[in-house]
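ok trying again, last paste got cut off:
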Amino acid sequence: MARTLLAALALAAALPARADLSPKVPWIGVRLGGLYAVGSAGGGEPGAGGGTLYALFDGRDFLADVAFDGYGGDRARFFALGLGAYWPIGLGRVTPYLGGGLKAGYTQFGGEGAFGMIPFAAGGVVVGREGYVQLRAEVAWFVALAREGITGQPDAQGVRANGPMFTLGVAL
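nice, full thing came through this time. structure:
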């Protein structure tokens, strides 16, 4: 698995530049990954697997994306639509970045579920920034601002789910 990932990264970095396209043309991609709820209404740390469809805009000095997330697991649901803004650390073909954003969506981690705003902080790396194929790896931390009710405890205040998301994606 690690060799395959390293070979894909090397291939993406070696592909020729997309000189015919403006940097403002969005990259359309998909990321697959998982998430865990460190704080959850159902107790424990429920996890979910799924993916993200996104459009990434590269303004050279900044990156911005529009994304739709869909994750599901045994005791976990996460569906959201959001915007992100990132600061690229460098201008090369392999570029690490830091940033964050805001999503609106539905979360359910062992409780009754909640709909609300979900801010997140993220860091990652884009490989093949000027190539025909782009790879993107990202680690993010989300915080669901809406409190999820605890099943069977109607008087309880509820819990704000939060936790890490890990994704690996490809875009054209």
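cool. Residues 18-22 have pLDDT under 50 and may be disordered. The helical segments are 2-14.
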